Structure formats: structure tokens, C-alpha cells
Write the C-alpha cells for this entry.
Amino acid sequence: MTIRVLLVDDHVVVRRGLRAFVETEPELAVVGEAGDGVQALELLRQWQTLGEPLPDVVLMDLRMPRMDGTEATERITVGYPGVHVVVLTSFGEVERVHTALAAGAAGYLLKDAEPGEVASAIRAAAMGEVHLDSAVAGQLVRRISAPRIGLTALTAREREILALVAEGHPNRKIAERLVISERTARTHVSNVLSKLQLSSRTQAALFAIREGLIPPPS
């Protein structure tokens, strides 16, 4: 079965190169090109209105004028559930990857990827699978396996403890407020300071204010 592909990139040279490659693959066919997210959505609306088959996969750049790839990806995956988006970009920061995947992307590739990997990502997306660039996948694994720091390292109870410490409550008052023993309160405070790599209650208070856990003193 032929996999229909829409190319979305604001650089004509890039689109020409992608078209030349995609058309060498017997089961892949380029059905259209767009210079930004707005134009891509206009094409999809036109095809849908005319009753023409929609593309199976969209190869999507991220940085484009008028509408970037992230917003276009979200609009496409919500408005056209049968169309899968593979991001093809020069930017591999973990935050960008997370944002693209959260928007519904079925793949994320860097523009220095080998042609074979681009083809694999298109095929995977057409089958409803997710394909990540090997370098991007490595970054995600390292981020997941890295120890958590900051507020994300704390449990809900420990955040509550931190807020009370920042408000100036001693362990006894914290214990009374939370209906726990003073020893348990002391242990919680110690765990909070350890997880946040802080050495004093004053540092904990400053941290809580900086993170917006409590308002700064007036």
C-alpha cells in the first residue's frame, strides 16, 4: 500500500531534497508541500472538502513563520486523527521533543538523520507507531534515569512540610498542624533538606519563595 506524505518546511531547498528522497522509495508518495503550518492546514481542509484522500504522514519542521510545527502538529492530530505527524527538525533539545510528543507527534527526527531512518519513521507513523531519532531517544533515557531535583523530587507531604518550614514553623508546630509526632516532623524536614540539597531552614524558606510555593514577605 502506498503511504501518502505531505512535506511541511519553510525552506524550498529542504522540501525539494525530501521530495527527491521520498520518491525513490517505492511505497512512499509525496502528495503535497507546504511552507508553514497555516498552509498545511489549508491543504488538509481543501482535500477533505473535495473528498480527496488525506496524507497518511506529515513530515513537519518545527521553526516556521505564521504557525510553527508544534501548533500545526497539535491542530492536525486533533482535527485529522488519521493523519500522523513526524517532526523533522534541526533542534534536538529534550524540552522540544517533549512538547512535540505532547502535541501528538508520532515521530521525532533530526535533519542529519540517514535517509533510511526517515523512511523507517514514515512507515512506523503510518502503522500508528512512534519512531524517535536515536540521539533524541538517548537524551530522553538519560533525562528519565537522572535523579530528580527541585520540587519534583518531593512528595505531596514533603511539599506541605516545606511550606510550613518556609512560614517559620518549628517542628513542634508542624507536628501539631499535620497531626503527626514531632519525631516524624523532624524526619520529614530532614528529608526535604536532603532532597533539595539545602543545609538550613533559611535556605529552605528562600527556595520555597523562589519556587512560588509561598508568597514572598510583604
DSSP finds ten helices and six strands in the chain. The chain has a mean pLDDT of 88. The first helix runs from residue 12 to 22.
